[in-house]
Amino acid sequence: xxxxxxxxxxxxxxxxxxAALKIRKLAFCPEVVAGDVILPRSGGAGRVRLLLPxxxxxxxxxxxxxxxxxxxxxxxSEADRPVLLSPVAEVDMQRFIHGRRRLGEECMETFTGxxxxxxxxxxxxxxxxxxxxxxxxxxxxxxxxxxxxxxVKASNAGQPRLEASFAHVLEAKxxxxxxxxxxxxxxxxxxxxxxxxxxxxESEWLPARTAQSTS
Length: 215
Known about the structure:
The chain is α+β, with helices and mostly antiparallel strands. It has helices at 2-26, 93-98, 172-179, 193-202, and strands at 30-33, 37-39, 50-58, 64-75, 83-91, 108-109, 114-116, 121-130, 144-154, 161-170, 184-186.
């Protein structure tokens, strides 16, 4: 009798799991692949902004909307003082590259929420700056490990969710290059499935030689 009850319970669990999986596949299921960070040429402006290639994928069979994103950056020596950044523009990477990797009005437009259809993916190159810039201090570059956390608010969730977290080490060479008005690329070279997905999309915008991160 106990064995029969156990079998029935297992069957019920399998049916419930299958039903949950089916519901998930029929729903809007956005995912974000991220891990790379670009420090565009500042042009002497003095304000540090971060450009992130973000790849949004919808594994579900229903469409939805990516409403907004946010980025939290924490230096290893300031765990209690994370910096919150918000999207200030979407960057046209072809124009950015043709403009010698310096930001200008010709390669930027306002970042807004966007629709993501069923079983589709889309790349967005999003420029982040410190949230509430009028009152907050600019982002400061420091040597050492930085932790990045990407939050996404989508139409299928009432609250924003942490969708990606990664780390990069800013070395003295990175800071020196940036100080000389060079663009700095922090690339996540870990061989993972997300990394492989990024590699397929990055081939058009990665420079011939990059400064490798040691995250």
